[in-house]
Design brief:
43% of the residues lie in helices and 12% in strands. The chain is an alpha+beta fold. The strands form two sheets. Strands 1-2 form a two-stranded antiparallel sheet. Strands 3-4 form a two-stranded antiparallel ribbon. The longest helix has 21 residues.
């Protein structure tokens, strides 16, 4: 069961399964970092295994980095949908 979040007010978003609390500003920062607009503007790319790669081919992040942030965003969106439906 997902926690009852209230991030639209700037309160922490609890990811209790992994013990992380993120507020809306932090989530937006992570989302922006992996956004296609940001990736493209820096001439980066995302590998098949979720690494951000710079224009010279150097890995800027570890494998799974983009995937992990996308999962955080999905959990947060599901929480908002569940909260707004009830």
């Amino acid at each position: 069961m997902l926690p009852d979040w209230s991030d639209l007010q700037g309160n922490p978003i609890s990811h209790s399964a992994i013990g992380i609390d993120l507020n809306l500003i932090e989530l937006k920062a992570l989302s922006h970092f992996i956004s296609q607009d940001n990736i493209n503007s820096r001439n980066w790319s995302v590998s098949n295994d979720g690494q951000i790669i710079d224009e010279s081919g150097k890995a800027l992040t570890k494998r799974g980095f983009v995937d992990a942030i996308e999962k955080l965003n999905v959990v947060s969106e599901q929480s908002l949908i569940g909260k707004n439906d009830g």
